[in-house]
Write a structure and sequence with these properties.
This protein is of the alpha+beta class. 39% of the residues lie in helices and 21% in strands. The protein folds into two domains: 30 residues; 68 residues, Alpha-Beta Plaits. A three-stranded antiparallel beta sheet has the order 1-3-2, with no helix packed on it.
């Protein structure tokens, strides 16, 4: 049955299932005390310059670590859709202090 469906319908079903599972986990969690923040940057390197961007990002992250930065970054490459070639830089659980 799954293989007989058009690809867009399969993708929509998979997305709906993933969102439902994510929502159920999110609702079950207590909010952190104090509140935290997640920071996300989307970067679009100049066309044809992804290798240079990746190397510059590595150098910057090493420099920031040497300066004592405690932020932990995850980098994701966009591989599908209108933003192919962009990068998402994500860092989370930053303490916002007491309300």
């Amino acid at each position: 049955m799954w293989n007989a469906m058009p690809r867009t319908i399969r993708n929509a079903h998979a997305l709906a299932i993933a969102l439902a599972l994510t929502a159920s986990f999110a609702l079950a969690q207590e909010p952190p005390d104090p509140p935290t923040q997640t920071t996300v940057f989307e970067v679009a390197p100049a066309p044809g310059h992804a290798p240079e961007f990746e190397e510059a990002l590595r150098q910057y992250m090493a420099w920031a670590k040497e300066q004592g930065s405690t932020w932990r970054w995850e980098v994701f490459a966009v591989t599908h859709g209108k933003r192919v070639g962009n990068y998402l830089l994500v860092s989370g659980d930053h303490n916002l202090g007491s309300p």
